[in-house]
């Protein structure tokens, strides 16, 4: 349930697939929170966006692993290796549950790892659930985030 | 005046100087006979020993009266002039002043016939500070002298045309016989152990051939061998002839006995003459064949028709001939060894080429040629690929096994440059070999691998089985002479038998070299094969990895568009504009297909993970694994009553717990899925390798392992489909029958079993049920 917030929630999503981004936006809409969404198509762009957002501190990063250029793995490692960014939760979204990727992401500091189901309703459900959780249930480090 | 020598130890004959005439019968041992100081000359000639400074006679043979017309005692302390006249003295003096006579007897002049005495050839040489002058009948009958130079020249020319060593020796024997007129001429060849072989022979037609006979080393005593390294001819014109003692027996100036090594007249060893007499030989002449400083053999001439004097001129020709033979023989032997070497190398290269072509060293004992064709040996064996390959006559495999272990400990095998062990008397080094000395007294062995487990061996039989010997052992012994039966052929044979027991013919240097070269060739072959194999393996590993990575990435990347397709179909369906039932049905189909493709991709991903994941093999209790599997299967169990049976607890296996569980889960899932019985039944058990069970379809090599099985009472599989069930995405039924599925379960089972180095197979009767069998040897190599 949305509560009064002083600032909109800031969501940075690294996603090169338009369809998947579209699904995310649908999920954001369903969650119904005031979220400002920044999209980057590659891990490298994602880092740039994040650093530009640094003063206002993004609330959550959604990271697709397999993007062109600097991929999600590298971007994840860079975020978690950057003292200014490392407290921002990063949720990984991947097409498959490759054990190697899962181990890598958690070791690199990912806050969660989710598989994007092919079945659209399932995909939507996963996204709505995780957005609800991270944007309204979880207590995040900075005071800018909303709380229930 | 006789002086008693001060050093009595030199003369152990009752304190007296040695003389064959006086002490010969007391000799008991060939090697102790003082053959170089016999104190006597052969009585067909006479000898004077002179003081070089004034040519005064110091010693004279006791028969000078008969040959020179003056009794020995009348010549002592006189000038040599007393014996040979002033002309003779002048000739001798001039000769000694100019010619190199030290230890080198040379012809000086011929003393003409006087009264009833024949003309005498006079030869002279100096040794140990005295001049020795020998007198022998010229043997000339008045007819013209043959041109010995021309004879020898012709002979040498014939020798040079001989192709092989044997032909060379045949020519030499023929020529010496023609030159001397003796009844039998043999070329003896000494073997490394000292025993002799009649290598070539020329003889009077009526005599028994001795060609190929072997004689014990003892027939050629060491003192005699030493002498033949110093002289070029040894005449014994009358084996039964008289001896003439020197007067006095020792040099009056020094008290020393006379060294007669180089004297043609030197009194023959009693052992030698008795040996010759036992063989009915009446006269003999022997010349050495030398190689470098060593005695290679002898040109031995025997005469049987009474005494036969070979005059000095003829002997000189023979001496020269012996020298030529010695020189030319080396060339002939080198030539022959070269030919043998080329033959060995030729066959060896063929062997290796054949082994390379056939893809295995076994071809070296099975094919044509074999290891035996190269080397002169009785048998050969190869240890390679954990087993023995044998050709010809060899010890048994059990004997080879122990021998191989012993060989691998030999210090020779540790040589970094030339690991090679060769012996002509294996039992001496390795006592257990006495059991098979008949076939393998001689052994030539080379290791074929750095770990030394692989071996190449050649065997030579005991000599006694391969050669004829001098002296028929079944012949009645001849009446022994004063030195007893040991010098008779029969006794000689016994000695010989003793000396060659558990011995083979020695390995030639050229054979050792060839074996060492063959080893290098084989190792190159083995190494190149191993390298090729390693390359192939590396390629294969890489392409496997690439395939796995490809499968993974491809299926991963394929999912993204699939998700998009599903999404659009979903949205279209959700959208209010779609009302047409036909459209709705098609959109449903589209979504169903994307989901099916999704599950196929998941299977592919899983399969590629099965292939790539590291196996963690450990001692695993399969009962626990089975329990876990059952829980997992139970969760997705089909409806209806199911009986699950385990007749007896499963053993422990060496496997990866997680993947073993997956094997059971997949097999049991199938057992339930493809089952239309009301009461479904699954049995999981195993067959112990020692138990007598039918093992239908069991692949070769699996009988030695525990065989696990999962048996059901399901729909069964037609035998014609046995091979297809393991193929990826291969389904035997309609897509939605039996609960659907991607058809990857058995492919994964097969992959997992193979990764445990096991095999999986099945037996089935359609309508009654199927049994899947598998093994888990669990020898997991590096992944």
Explain what this protein looks like in three dimensions:
The complex is a heterodimer of chains A (148) and B (783). In chain A, 42% of the residues lie in helices and 18% in strands. Chain A has five helices and five strands; from the N terminus they run E-H-E-H-E-H-E-H-E-H. In chain A, helix 4 links the parallel strand 4 and strand 5 (112-115). In chain A, helix 1 packs across helix 5 and helix 2 packs parallel to helix 3 (72-80). Chain A starts with 8 loop residues before the first strand and ends in an 11-residue tail after the last helix. By secondary structure, chain B is of the alpha+beta class. Helix content of chain B is 39%, strand content 19%. Chain B has a seven-stranded antiparallel β-sheet with strand order 1-11-3-2-6-5-4. In chain B, strands 10-12-13-7-8-9-19 form a seven-stranded mixed β-sheet. In chain B, a hairpin with a 4-residue loop joins strand 2 and strand 3 (56-61). The interface between A and B is medium-sized, with 17 and 21 residues.
The class by helix and strand makeup of chain A works out as alpha/beta
Q: Report low-confidence residues of chain A grouped into runs of 5 or more.
A: 1-5, 143-148
User: How far do the termini of chain B sit from each other?
Assistant: 101 Å
Can you count the beta strands of chain B? 26
Strand order of the biggest β-sheet of chain A: 2-1-3-4-5
Share of helical residues of chain A: 40-55%
The helix/strand order of chain A is EHEHEHEHEH
Percent helix range of chain B:
25-40%
Structural class of chain B: alpha+beta
Write out the strand line-up for the largest beta sheet of chain B, numbering strands in chain order: 1-11-3-2-6-5-4
The beta-strand count of chain A equals 5
Q: Provide the residue-averaged pLDDT of chain A.
A: 84
Oligomer kind: heterodimer
Number of helical stretches of at least 4 residues of chain A? 5
Tally of alpha and pi helices of chain B? 20
The 3D shape of chain B can be described as rod-shaped
Q: Approximately what portion of the residues of chain A adopt beta-strand conformation?
A: 15-25%
């Amino acid at each position: 349930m949305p509560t009064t917030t002083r600032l909109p929630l800031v969501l940075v999503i690294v996603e090169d697939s338009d369809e998947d981004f579209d699904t995310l936006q649908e999920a954001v809409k369903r969650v119904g929170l005031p979220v400002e969404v920044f999209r980057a198509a590659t891990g490298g762009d994602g880092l740039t966006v994040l650093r530009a957002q640094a003063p206002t501190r993004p609330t959550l990063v959604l990271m697709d692993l397999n993007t062109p250029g600097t991929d999600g793995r590298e971007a994840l490692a860079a975020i978690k290796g950057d003292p200014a960014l490392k407290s921002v939760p990063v949720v990984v979204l991947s097409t498959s549950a490759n054990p190697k990727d899962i181990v890598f992401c958690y070791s690199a500091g990912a806050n969660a790892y989710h598989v994007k189901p092919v079945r659209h309703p399932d995909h939507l459900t996963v996204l709505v659930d995780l957005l609800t959780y991270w944007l309204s249930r979880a207590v995040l480090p900075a005071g800018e985030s909303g709380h229930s | 005046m006789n002086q008693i020598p001060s050093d009595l130890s030199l003369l152990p004959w009752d304190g007296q100087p040695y003389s064959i005439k006086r002490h010969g019968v007391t000799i008991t041992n060939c090697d102790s006979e003082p053959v170089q100081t016999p104190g006597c000359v052969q009585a067909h000639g006479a000898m004077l020993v002179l003081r070089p400074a004034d040519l005064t006679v110091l010693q004279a043979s006791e028969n000078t009266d008969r040959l020179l017309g003056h009794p020995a005692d009348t010549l002592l302390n006189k000038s040599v002039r007393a014996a040979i006249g002033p002309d003779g003295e002048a000739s001798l003096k001039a000769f000694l002043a100019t010619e190199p006579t030290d230890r080198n007897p040379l012809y000086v002049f011929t003393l003409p016939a006087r009264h009833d005495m024949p003309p005498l050839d006079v030869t002279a040489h100096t040794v140990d500070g005295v001049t020795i002058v020998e007198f022998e009948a010229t043997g000339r009958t008045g007819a013209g002298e043959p041109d010995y130079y021309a004879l020898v020249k012709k002979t040498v020319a014939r020798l040079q045309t001989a192709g092989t060593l044997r032909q060379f020796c045949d020519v030499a024997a023929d020529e010496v016989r023609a030159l001397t007129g003796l009844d039998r001429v043999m070329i003896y060849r000494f073997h490394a152990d000292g025993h002799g072989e009649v290598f070539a022979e020329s003889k009077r037609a009526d005599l028994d051939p001795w060609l190929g006979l072997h004689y014990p080393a003892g027939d050629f005593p060491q003192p005699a061998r030493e002498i033949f390294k110093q002289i070029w001819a040894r005449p014994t014109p009358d084996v039964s002839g008289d001896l003439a003692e020197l007067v006095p027996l020792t040099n009056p100036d020094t008290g020393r006995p006379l060294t007669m090594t180089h004297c043609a007249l030197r009194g023959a060893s009693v052992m030698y003459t008795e040996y010759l007499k036992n063989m009915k030989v009446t006269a003999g002449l022997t010349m050495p064949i030398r190689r470098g400083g060593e005695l290679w053999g002898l040109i031995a001439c025997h005469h049987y028709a009474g005494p036969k004097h070979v005059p000095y001129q003829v002997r000189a020709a023979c001496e020269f001939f012996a020298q030529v033979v010695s020189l030319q023989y080396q060339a002939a032997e080198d030539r022959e060894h070269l030919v043998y070497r080329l033959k060995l190398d030729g066959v060896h290269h063929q062997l290796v080429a054949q082994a390379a072509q056939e893809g295995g060293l076994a071809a070296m004992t099975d094919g044509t040629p074999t290891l035996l064709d190269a080397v002169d040996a009785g048998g050969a064996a190869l240890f390679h690929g954990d087993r023995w390959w044998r050709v010809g006559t060899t010890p048994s495999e059990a004997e080879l096994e122990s021998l191989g272990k012993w060989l691998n400990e030999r210090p020779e095998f540790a040589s970094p440059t030339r690991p090679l062990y060769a012996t002509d008397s294996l039992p001496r080094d390795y006592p257990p070999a006495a059991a098979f000395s008949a076939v393998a007294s001689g052994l030539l062995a080379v290791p074929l691998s750095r770990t030394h487990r692989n071996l190449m061996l050649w065997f030579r039989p005991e000599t006694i089985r391969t050669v004829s010997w001098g002296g028929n052992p079944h012949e009645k012994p001849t009446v022994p002479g004063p030195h007893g039966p040991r010098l008779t052929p029969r006794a000689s044979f016994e000695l010989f038998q003793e000396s060659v027991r558990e011995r083979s013919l020695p390995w030639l240097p050229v054979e050792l070299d060839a074996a060492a070269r063959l080893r290098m060739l084989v190792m190159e072959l083995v190494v190149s094969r191993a390298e090729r194999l390693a390359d192939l393996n590396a390629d294969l590993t890489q392409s496997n990895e690439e395939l796995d990575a490809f499968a993974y990435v491809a299926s991963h990347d394929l999912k993204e568009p699939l998700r998009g397709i599903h999404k659009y179909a979903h949205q279209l369906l959700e959208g209010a504009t779609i009302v047409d039932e036909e459209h709705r049905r098609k959109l449903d189909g589209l979504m169903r297909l994307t989901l099916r493709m999704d599950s196929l991709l998941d299977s592919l991903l899983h399969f590629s993970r099965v292939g790539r994941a590291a196996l963690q093999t450990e001692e695993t209790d399969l009962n626990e694994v089975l329990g876990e599997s059952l829980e997992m299967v139970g969760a997705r169990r089909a409806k209806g009553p199911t009986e699950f049976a385990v007749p007896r607890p499963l053993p422990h296996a060496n496997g990866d717990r997680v993947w073993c569980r997956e094997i059971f889960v997949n097999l049991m899932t199938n057992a339930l899925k493809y089952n239309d019985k009301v009461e479904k039944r699954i049995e999981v058990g195993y067959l112990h390798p020692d138990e007598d069970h039918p093992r239908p379809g069991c692949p070769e090599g699996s009988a030695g392992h525990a065989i696990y099985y999962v048996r059901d009472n399901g729909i069964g599989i037609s035998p014609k489909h046995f091979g297809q069930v393991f193929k990826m995405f291969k389904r035997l039924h309609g897509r939605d029958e039996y609960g659907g599925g991607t058809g990857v379960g058995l492919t994964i089972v097969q992959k997992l079993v193979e990764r445990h180095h096991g095999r999986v197979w099945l037996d089935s009767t359609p309508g009654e049920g199927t049994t899947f069998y598998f093994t888990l040897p669990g020898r997991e190599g590096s992944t």
